[in-house]
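WARN retry 2 of 3 for item q-0093 after timeout on previous attempt; input resubmitted unchanged.
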Amino acid sequence: MRRTIIQLICCMLLISVCSSGCMTTEKEPAGEEYDHDVIYQTSTINALLEGMYEGDVTVGELKEHGDLGLGTFNDLDGEMVLLDGIAYQVKADGIAYKAENSMKTPFAAVTKFESDINETIWQEMNNTELTAYMSTLMPSRNLMYAIKIEGNFSYMKTRSVPAQQKPYPRLADVTKEQPTFEFDNVSGTIVGFWLPEYVENVNVPGYHLHFIDSNGSAGGHVLEYTIRSGNVHIDVTDGFFMQCPATEGFLNVDLSGERIEEITQVER
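OK item q-0093 returned
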């Protein structure tokens, strides 16, 4: 009962902060067809920035809300990639492992992916060129978009983060020493989201992308890439639901203030 009340209060707070009509905090209706155009999120990016690396949502619970997405794991133990309903954990060695359903996450966002926009890429583009092109395909800067890019990449650079121990450091301090990985001539899939500016403090505005190779053996948080050819799929999304953790850390952390510069630092 206590957890339910806490989650209700958090969701009511989210409604007051994010007054846009395109956001929803309604739970999946029982016995009715569920609207797939919803991003389900646990916790906030600001909480992660503050070192809140313990959550109470399991990978199995995430899969009930989506088959594509990204995030991390408790103790900040690597990068999460959710693709076609399979969750991967890319650890600090750059190797991807299949995540157990019992594993928990302090921050993740997922959706039931149904592509609305599909484009084929025939010419080589770097990440700046491709993301700029994808932005022209989006009908509004005020909606949210789930993204899947299946391609052959002449270059891919990713990063991951090592598991942390208490007392947890801030995320910006962790990423200063982040291990990075470079791949040449690799095929695989980029998954993630483009989100509007108004999600600041809740999630990452703009593009947030993770990568998994075609063998499911390596990947991470995307830093740079050059694509030779591939297919871009975009799911136009107009719904958002956030579940607040009932952990002691989340309930007591100060989440006030703007942290956009810090978000940019840790995401790039």
